[in-house]
């Protein structure tokens, strides 16, 4: 018996490769019939929301494991910078594994996902704000811009791996250096 | 009479606000009946492709107007840097006006859009490569990473404006500074 979670995982893997894959293709990827897929998910939107939930769980775990709340509260520059680098490295992995969920427009229509997104984003904003106050990040940029820049660069990570533009081994360094010091030669 | 192009423009404006808007909502936004919308576009995918084409025309115009090919060929650091800054400023506007097209998965299924995307991207890659050789950009990053980072940051621009996180007046500076020198305090 293929569980609901196994179907979601298999569908996600397929959608990471081809975001427009049909429900028939997703059933095939999960090794179930279309009838079974439809018994679990009334339609594409319901499956998309299940994938979004999985991605948010992974994101939440990344924030917990990096200890972002404690680091932000500490005010300690060295600790904040180490946590920020740790977090970016983990988020690069998450962006690769949950790439489809990063830009799926369907996720915006689910109020529960949106509410949880805001709670998770608030924890990151607190870390970026603490980093600005501790002198780790420039303090002349809106903290929400910093957060949106990280999100954008993670899409860059996802695409770089998806299209084979960058070696997996190099992508974290590229993300962290671009975020902290940019791509300019005279940094 | 509402022309096909007017419908595409009105639909794009609506989709920028709500990427999941229904075909009925798009017809309403364009001030036409659903029957008229369907006479122009057999379905959502056809409308999406028309929006993608419009976005690519705008992108191509941005590359032409910035003179990226000439700047890349010149090898002149000052000219390359000025062109790069000009291009980023224009692309920030394009990202705002064509935001929906930046992350619409449906565009990947159209071979013509994909082929044109690759031709346009190649012109940007040539500019980034020239910038690396001229000492404007760091030369230890794959040029395709640089391109993907720009694309990601443009999504950050789009979202920052869409959610009201950043003032329109500030967003170009934030994009250019983040791209060239990063968000770190010790740049």
CATH topology description of the largest domain in chain A: Tetracycline Repressor, domain 2
SSE run of chain A: HHHHHHHHHH
Helix content of chain A: over 70%
Poorly predicted residue ranges of chain A: none
CATH architecture descriptor of the largest domain in chain A: Orthogonal Bundle
Average pLDDT over all residues of chain A: 96
Major beta sheet summary of chain A: none
How many alpha or pi helices of chain A? Answer: 10
User: Shape of chain A from CA axes?
Assistant: elongated
Quaternary structure annotation? homodimer
How far the N terminus sits from the C terminus of chain A, by CA atoms, comes to 56 Å
Radius of gyration of chain A: 18 Å
Instruction: Please identify the structural class of chain A as seen in this structure.
Output: mainly alpha
Most extensive contact: A-B, 47 and 47 residues
Total DSSP E strands of chain A = 0
GO molecular function, one term (chains A, B): transcription cis-regulatory region binding
DNA-binding region (chains A, B): 22-41
Domain HTH tetR-type (chains A, B): 1-59
InterPro entries (chains A, B): Homeodomain-like_sf, HTH-type_TetR-like_transc_reg, HTH_TetR, Tet_transcr_reg_TetR-rel_C_sf
